[in-house]
Amino acid sequence: MSPRRRREPEFMSYYGRPILKEPTWAATDIAGYLFTGGLAGASSILAAGAQHTGRPALARSAKLGAFGAIAVSAVALVHDLGRPSRFYNMLRVAKPTSPMSVGSWLLAAYGPLAGASAVSDVTGVFPAAGRLAGDAAAVLGSGVASYTSVLIADTAVPAWHESRRELPFVFVGSAAASAGGFGLLSAPLDESAPARRTAVGGALVELAATRVMEGKGDLVSETFHTGTAGQLLRAARVLTAVGGAGAAILARRSRVAAAASGAALLAGSALTRFGIFAAGQASTRDPKYVVVPQRERDGVRPATVPA
Amino acid sequence: MTTTQLGMPRVGFFTDTSVCIGCKACEVACKEWNAIPADGPLELTGESFDNTSALGANTWRHVAFIEQPAAPSAGGEHDGVRWLMSSDVCKHCTEAACLDVCPTGALFRTEFDTVVVQQDVCNGCGYCVSACPYGVIGQREDDGRVFKCTMCYDRIGVGQEPACAKACPTKSIQFGELDDLRERARNRVAELQASGLHDARLYGDSPDDGVGGNGAFFLLMDEPEAYGLPPHPVVTTRHLPQMWRHAAIAAATLLGGVVASFVGRQPARLRDR
Amino acid sequence: MVGGAATPDNDFCFDYLPRITGSHSTYETVQAQLDGVCKGYFLLGENPAVGSANTGMQRRGMAELDWLVVRDFSLIESATWWKDGPEIQTGEMRTEDIGTEVFFFPAASHTEKSGSFTNTNRLVQWHHAAVEPDGDRRSDLWFMLHLGNIIRRKLAGSTDEADRPVLDLTWDYLTEGDTAEPVAETVLAEINGWNADGELLSAYTDLKADGSTACGCWIYCGCYADGVNQTARRKAHMLQSISSQEWGWAWPANRRELYNRASADPEGKPWSERKKLVWWDEEEQKWTGDDVPDFEPTKPPSYRPDDDARGVDALSGIDPFIMQADGKGWLYVPAGLVDGPLPTHYEPQDSPFDNALYRVQRNPARQTFSRPHNRYHPSGSEDGADVFPYVLTTYRLTEHFTAGGMTRWLPYLAELQPELFCEVSPQLAAERSLRHNDWATIVTARGAIEARVMVTSRMPSLTVHGRTLHQIGMPYHWGPNGLTTGDAMNELSAVSLDPNVHIQEDKALTADIRPGRRPRGADLPAFVAEYRRRARIDEHTGTEGAMAT
């Protein structure tokens, strides 16, 4: 399914100018948030599971990981705003048509819960309430890890919108891989089996879903294979595959191997998000990604400049 | 009759580019009325007489110039060249993606069915910028908020027409009740077609299109993409139910999958407790 | 204007009026500057360093003045040439050597002052000040009034007869406000004229030769009829008939269409119902209609003059062109024009082609000025014409206005057309290796400028006399001052004038074009000099047959 077999399509444009605006979002902030949000949400599920199955070290590290990741997320999200001091306007309305509104409310609930769970675990205060908070954070965490796919797909950005069916699975797979990887990094071997399984399962889902997303052979999917995005996604694929294999085969017995696999999975997950982000940006820069698919969708050959 | 939620006739723009003379009075009138800063470096773009290039936070009316080789039979041809001119503007879509995705409610639909940004609410999240299928709305770098055409909300609110329509010397930009404008536009296209200008067509006039029809629609003399317009945009919100469904399934899969990873033997030391 | 000083004994001070000693057109004034005859210059909203032909000559003329006064909205090129103009950049002139004392006065704009505006279609419209001018900005009326006051104060008590015209002026206009702005209506009223009782006149037919009436300009008599500022009337055209008599006022006599007798047939009936202007009323025995008849009011259409009729009586009832001696419209002009009697064809001053109609290449009645910085090109088959093989034509853009003194300083307009450009065909671009949106240098015997290149099929290459002619087109609005700056196109043009109204030929020149930016500093005049040398241009080139000075 090499994208290079496609000939450059002929189509009309206005001096080759982009039709769409490039995303105003900074990669560091928003692609970063896609990663940290996924890491946090999936870590909360791991933490709850560890809590209920007597794995206190994994529980603590997963809770702290979730809390840390969501705290960084909040900073990144506020920082990315054009008017950061008006961040609270996110809670002015609750709009289901706006994934960002849904996400803001989700985070508004999830963040404090993840924080309470972590604080309770570390300080030992209100243990019952802390466990309840952790359970709630786990449920909401599944939403945090998946809604971000809708966030970027619910735009006019061709690479993201055309991937709307696969992105949720790419993201939850990536979230699981990163959370599992973090568990492998931070928890002792005798508690890290669930993290290992989550990591391997997540890596498989991430790799499979990404393959489907990238492999459509249409014009827009070339953004996943070329330029910066192509480089990032190729690196992500390698790291995720290596990390997943390491987790499956070596991480059971070797703490070092577990940590290395975990680090690779974390890096792979991050690069996946940055790669998808870059593909989106690239798909807004060339008008062909807007004109050609829209013409083809209607069964019409794109018009060309009259001879 | 096309009405707003309050039962008033919906108003909008019909821009008949077949009579646009490229004078840019609309660009200047808009900037003057709305106190929009002059933007961009003082450099020629090389894009014919268009040095504005695109709509954005600081350009709410943009006049495009297209020089095309043309056969003598083509309308407006002279010396083998046809020079198309067109004033672009925010489409004030019936189904507006910018409005749908705005998380603060800054973007809202007015009593005229136009789409306007409340500048005291917008926190510059930029979601609308990525949602707009026409690439209209933009963020002002030194300000942080997003800006776009308001269809001169303050003017139409007191019974006046928008500044661009008032300034337009050829009545290329027409403002009025959408139903009237659509009928006028249909007649105009028929007139042009009958005189041999077969390229004339309407853009954004149909309520059955991908954005439910535009509150600002056009008569174009070539394909939309020649003007930098998307040929068949669809508001992203149309696919949102499908996206939420997939996300819900994915979330459930994640939850279930991670939970399932705990099934099995407990660690030895824990078992021995 | 001289009020009580005008008496029958002194011929009503008729001799105070300056006599026409010859043409004082703008270009002849520049020659007078170069010759040291014209010592002072007022530029009121005019920018010859950009907008007049041969801007180099304009600046050289100004450099010979004793004093120069520039009134404008911003520091236009004609105000700053002495410190940063092209000749300073090339070293051809040095600021310290220029003896001209330059005064700059910031000017109020049309929204900051009241006054009249007269179009070329004779319509006079009043405009009202909307805001007071800021800072030091003042109207031209204010400037003239107060300058006059200062001069009269300095001359007070003089016994020199030469000072009498200034001292005898009635210069007592009403002023108002903190800035002592002249009440413009009083000036208009004076132009309209009044009688000895101070009553405003209503028509130029009220004017008498016995000193009992005074009028600033007879064609404006009536613009303040009945004591009403007729030029300020604003009845919308939708509420009026075709002549719209009540919007503003037209000189003379509010007559909207000159020679409107021609709108009626020989019987005096309108040719067109839809466009009827005036018609003969048989009952009333006079001309009447929608417009003020431009005809003797009681002369019937049937009137035919006797053989010995004289003056107006010699014009029949079917001779609408009453300003011509025979009342007819003239295609053949036996008198009144320096050239004629029929229009014919000569090539422009600089042309790539020989005149196909005559052996004489150029209009022999044209005015030329043989100056070192006003050299003309060899044309047609003349030796050296191929050094400037292309035609340069000039025009305007929508976004800028004339010499750019207003528009190139406004951000909203500057960003719409931000740089000077020239338009060339793809064929010319190929021939001269010009790249779209890159730079080109355009050169004539007068100067060399640089501009961005716009390669466009809208600028076709022509086939003329069996060979290809490439054209270069460019707008002329740019100059080195302002928000958007660039070279002035008129660095390239020469002064060669039409003999009747002394208008410069700056829309059809020959030139060469090369890719890349122009030379700077001393290299620039050297570059131009080399072109002149190659074309073997001297003081005689292109001057044959002309009314040379």
Compact summary:
The complex is a heterotrimer of chains A (307), B (273) and C (549). Chain A is mostly helical and 307 residues long. Chain A has helices spanning 27-52, 56-80, 99-123, 127-153, 158-161, 167-186, 193-214, 227-249, 255-285, 288-297.
Structure notes:
The complex is a heterotrimer of chains A (307), B (273) and C (549). Chain A is an all-alpha fold and 307 residues long. Chain A contains ten helices and no strands. In chain A, α1 runs antiparallel to α2, α2 crosses α3 (99-123) and α4 (127-153) runs antiparallel to α6 (167-186). The longest helix of chain A is centred in the last third of the chain and has 31 residues, at 255-285. The radius of gyration of chain A is 21 Å and the shape is globular. Chain A starts with 26 loop residues before the first helix and ends in a 10-residue tail after the last helix. In chain A, 62% of the residues are buried. With 273 residues, chain B is α+β, with helices and mostly antiparallel strands. Chain B folds into two domains: 11-239, 2-Layer Sandwich (Alpha-Beta Plaits); 240-271. Chain B contains eight helices and eleven strands. Chain B has helices at 25-34, 97-101, 127-131, 153-156, 163-167, 178-194, 240-260, 268-271, and strands at 11-16, 61-69, 77-78, 81-89, 107-109, 115-117, 138-139, 146-147, 173-177, 201-203, 216-220. A four-stranded mixed β-sheet of chain B has the order 9-1-11-10. Chain B has a three-stranded antiparallel β-sheet with strand order 2-4-3. In chain B, strands 5-6 form a two-stranded antiparallel ribbon. In chain B, β7 (138-139) and β8 form a beta hairpin. The radius of gyration of chain B is 24 Å and the shape is globular. The termini of chain B are far apart. The mean pLDDT of chain C is 95. In chain C, β18 and β19 form a beta hairpin. Chain C has three domains: 23-108 and 136-173, Rossmann fold; 258-344, no CATH class; 367-548, Barwin-like endoglucanases. Chain C is globular, with a radius of gyration of 27 Å. By secondary structure, chain C is α+β, with helices and mostly antiparallel strands. Chain C has a six-stranded mixed β-barrel. In chain C, α1 (26-34) crosses α3. At the B-C interface, α1 of B face α9 of C.
